[in-house]
Write a structure and sequence with these properties.
Blueprint (H helix, E strand, L loop, with lengths): L1 H16 L8 H17 L4 H9 L5 H35 L7 H36 L1
Length: 139
């Protein structure tokens, strides 16, 4: 059922967007995922445990709670990386105000990083956290 929810989330975003090509920006993806994964590693979060507890039927209550905290941190880092990426995009735009053709890439980074951060944080990490907390409460 979770897979159906994820597919619906992504499908409706894709349908609403229409042409998906303008929504794909490699620098924005690198900012979001690089910052989020780097921050999780720096914080000492067990990323393998986050995934193993999420997809394991026999995870202990402690593993589920630890994984839920990891997903909560990932949500915070994803949203923060979106804000950082937005600031980076603004800096690129302001640096290139004299060349209007160079403003576009900065604007793309600025807007898409906040979009990617919010989708990752609230579309993936938060539901994973809530599911693990529910499973831990039942264990």
């Amino acid at each position: 059922m979770r897979v159906i929810g994820l597919v619906l989330l992504l499908a409706f975003l894709a349908i609403a967007a229409g042409d998906l090509l303008p929504f794909f920006d490699i620098p924005s993806v690198l900012i979001i995922f690089g910052f989020t994964i780097g921050a999780l590693i720096f914080a000492g979060v067990g990323i393998p445990n986050m995934f193993s507890a999420s997809f394991s039927a026999d995870a202990t209550r402690e593993n589920l709670q630890t994984a839920a905290r990891g997903w909560a941190q990932a949500k915070s880092y994803a949203v923060a990386s979106g804000i950082i990426g937005t600031m980076m995009g603004w800096i690129i735009m302001l640096k290139n105000l004299d060349d209007m053709a160079a403003v576009g890439p900065g604007m793309a980074i600025s807007i898409l990083t906040i979009l990617y951060g919010l989708v990752l944080g609230y579309g993936i990490c938060l539901p994973m956290q809530m599911r693990l907390e529910d499973r831990a409460a039942q264990a």
